[in-house]
Each structure stands twice: as structure tokens, then as C-alpha cells.
Amino acid sequence: MQEGDAARGLPDALAKQRPDWKPCEGEDGWTCASVKVPLDYDAPDGETISIALIRRPAQGKGRRLGSLLFNFGGPGASGVGLLPRASVEYEKLNSRYDLVSFDPRGVSESSGVVCRNDAGMEDAATRVDLTPDTAAEEAAYFEDAKDFGQGCEQRAGKLLAHVGTANAARDMDLVRHVLGDRKLNYFGISYGTQLGGTYAHLFPGNVGRTVLDAVVDPTADAFGHARNQTTGFQRALDNYLESRGEDATEGTARIAALLARIDRKSLPADDDRELNQSLALTGIVLSLYSESMWPDLTEGLEEAERRGRGSKLLALADAYNDRTESGTYGTQSHSQRAISCVDTKQRPTPAQAKALLPEFRKISPVFGPFLAWDTAGWCAQWPVPGERDTTDASAKGAGPILVVGTTGDPATPYEGARRMADALGKGVGVLLTNKGEGHGGYSPSNTCVAKIVDDYLLDGKVPADGGTCG
User: Fold this and answer.
1) Rounded Cα distance, 222 and 226, in Å
2) pLDDT band of 183, cuts 50, 70, 90
3) Cα–Cα distance measured from residue 347 to residue 352, given in angstroms and rounded to the nearest whole number
4) Residue 99 exposed, middle or buried by CB count within 10 Å (0-12, 13-18, 19+)
5) Residue of 162, 177, 225, 439 with catalytic role
6) How far apart are the first and last CA of the chain?
7) What is the pTM assigned to this prediction?
8) Which CATH architecture best describes the domain 12-111+163-220+390-469?
9) Catalytic site residue 42?
10) 40-55 in b/e burial notation, b at 16+ Cβ within 10 A?
């Protein structure tokens, strides 16, 4: 159902509010604020929650174009935390746009969902096998998943049912309204593309200049997303191995054998910790997100294979899991599961996950088992119902939306970009293919993609559909 304006029908206390911008603690040049939004848009006069915002005003002397709102993905990534650190990538855009980001509902400073304490997170990371091989390991895996969901329900309460992407899109439109922008100019990355597609569907008349980079396939259900990622990560691993002059099939078999050995006996690591199979796999996954991290993968694999130690892969896994050296954990993994499980109606069973194993192992002996089990590990016993099967991104009447797909993207494989462009509709979705590696194409170092995106966002130059960089 398309909606005209999220502020319509809201009480004046919400519709007429204006952010009270104040200097952000520890972030020179940035200001922070919050806006109130309804917990439940079907009950606009009811309970509210706060959405945290961060902004750096346009820095150039040219005509200001308004706000450019960023979402960096996850779901569950904190835009308030990430934008100041990523802003060097967007200095040219900051010349004419206010750079703005936010913590979506259920994330970090916006009533962030936290499902268990640090000790519980550490226990699960060291004890639970994400690719169970025995009945006992399966039981522990699904008991942990149930416990995680129950922790979310106990701590988040009524918020848990309202953290889905559609409500986050409504929040974005209310943010647009209170910022005083007639149209929403938006840059979405990874899950941010799903959020952007949802926004375009709900508010096509409010779509401004919009870029979707590293695109989630809107046509995929829970099984489809897992299949896509199995394909994408194996493709990235093949590209990594071939860049080293190694046969991809042989190299994959070597890494799968290493993981099997670690499954039988964990490797010692720094600070008297151990690298188990699940953490080793997590470290490999992180290192495939960017070609610049391939040397880290090489170092980690060589340390494990030649020296029998797991310190490097464990450090990579810690970075992925947002674990500090002192053993504390960030909240993204909590928010990510909460949002994902509200978004999908599907509740795959352990039997359905197990049935996927032969197919997924054939696609990838390294990543297939983990992603097959993961279909049921996340949402099978989730305490609140899901909202939909797939993402409706049809946006008839919206202006052109630039969709950037990278051919070697591991987490959001390239095929999803074409499907998103098609789903947005003829004359709306404009596909740009980036022939390269990594999760996302826009970067000042990628001069082809950067020029096309910058020309579009700054000057309104819409490229031809089907263009290619690289």
C-alpha cells in the first residue's frame, strides 16, 4: 500500500516537531538530535520512541541541495556511529548536501534491542556450533536460538513487534518532513537498499535523488537470501583464490578441510582464547567483504594451516562480531536478528534447514552448511510474527533511482541489483554494473562509479540504464 506522507494524521507534537541540534559528544563538526515517532503508526496518538540523528551541514559555497540521508546496512548498523567515520568517502557530496544519518528504530541509540548480556554472547560464540554435526550439537544450536529470541522479548517488550523495515521507512519519511525537505535524497548500502526500496514503494512521490549500492534481492525469501549468499561468498572466495594463482576448486577443498580439522580440535590463539570452527568461518566471511582485506585472509589461513594457531582469524571474527578486546559486544547482531525476523513471515524448521544441506554444500563446501542451518537458526522460534514474504519495491511514479551492483559482491550478489532495478519499475530503476570485488561499489578510489553517482546526486544527471564500470 502506497502512502503519501508519514506525517499525515499524526498529532502536531510529532508532525510539527523540529530537531534540536547540539554538538555531538566526541565528534567535532557534527551535531546530534532526536525526533519522536509513533511506536505503532496504526496508533499515532499512542506511545512514541526516539530516533537518533547526526548531521554535518553542507560545507561548500554552492547552492545547498538539502539533506542526504544515509543507511549503512546490517540491518542494525548505527548510522550515528558510522557516518562520521565514513564521511571521508562523501566529502564531495558534503559540499552541497547536509550529510545526515540515523539509528533506525530498535538500533543502538534509537531504543536499541539488546537480547542478552556480554557473558551470554561470549558463551554462545565459544560453545555453539553453527554447523552442527550431531544430535547434541543440533539441540544446543536451536536451544540457543530460542533463548536468544526469548531474551529479545523480555528486554524489548512491545517494541519487538514494531522494528521492521516498513516502520523504519515511515520513520525516514517523518525525518524528511521534520528536516524540511520536500523530497528524500537517500544513499542506502546493503540492507539500506532494502530499506530504500521499501521507502520508494510506500512513498514514491517523495523519492528524491536515491542511490542503492550493494543491493539486496527484493524477490528473495528467507531460503532465497541464504542461497544468494552461499553463491556470493563462494564466488568471492573463488576470485580470491584465483587472484593467488590457485585453482578455486582445490583451494575451496583445502579451506573446507581446514575448517573440518578445527571443528575436531580448536586452535590456540592469543590471550588464552581458542579459535573454533564457527569463529574461523566468521573470520573468513569478514575478509571477503573487501578486496583490501584479502591479505588478512591469507595471513589468517597460513597461520592456521602452517603454525596451527588461530589468532588472526579470531581477530577477524571479533571484528565481525563487534567484540572488543575486553570482551564486550556491540548491539548490531541483536538488532539485526530482531529486524530480520519481523520482516519475514517464514519460520523455517530444523528439518527444512537440514534438507537444504546437499544443495548448499554443492554450491559451497565452505559456506553452504552454515547458511543452510542459519535459515532455521534465526527465526524458527521467534516470539513475534513476521510481516511479509519478500520486499515489495515497486515504485510507480517515483523519480529515477540509481542501483549499483558489483559483480564480485559476496553478501549481496550482483543478480539482486538487476532484480531490484526491475522491481522498482520501468523508468525508475537505473542499473549500473561495477565489475569488481567487494561489498559495494561507491568509493572515491573507484573513479568511474564515483563520477556517475556524484554527477547524479549533485547535478541530477541520470545515467543510461545498463551502464558498466570496470
Assistant:
1) 6
2) very high
3) 10
4) buried
5) 439
6) 38
7) 0.97
8) 3-Layer(aba) Sandwich (3.40)
9) no
10) ebeebeeebbebbbbb
401-408 vs 429-437, strand pairing mode: parallel
Looking up cell 537518533 gives: 52
Q: Phi first, then psi: give them for residue 363, nearest 5 degrees.
A: -65, -45
Distance CA 449, CA 444 (A): 8
Cell of 298: 591469507
Q: What's phi and psi for 408, nearest 5 deg?
A: -105, 15
Q: Where are the domains of the chain?
A: 12-111+163-220+390-469, 117-158+227-388
Q: Which residues contact 279 (CB under 8 A, 6 or more apart)?
A: 125, 126, 310, 313, 314, 317
Query: Is 162 tagged catalytic?
Result: no
Q: At what angle do helices 222-243 and 248-264 cross, to 10 degrees?
A: 110
pLDDT digits (tens, 9 = 90+) for 104-136: 999 999 999 999 999 999 999 999 999 999 999
E strands within 375-425? Answer: 401-408
One of 129, 213, 409, 454 is an active-site residue; which one?
A: 409
> Which of 67, 190, 278, 287 does the annotation list as catalytic?
190
Q: Which three cell numbers stand for residue 61?
A: 559555497
Which residue, chain included where needed, has cell 559486544?
A: 329
Task: Quote the CA–CA distance of 177 and 206 in Å, as a whole number.
Answer: 10
- Residue 330 cell numbers, joined: 556491540
pLDDT tens per residue, range 210-239:
999 999 999 999 999 999 999 999 999 999
Q: Are strands 401-408 and 207-213 parallel, antiparallel or unpaired?
A: parallel
Beta-bridge partner residues of 185:
68
Which amino acid, 387? E
Tell which residue, 388, 380, 386, 378, has the closest CA to residue 349: 380
Residue 439 annotated to the active site: yes
Q: What is the dihedral of CA 175, 177, 179, 185, to 10 degrees?
A: 80
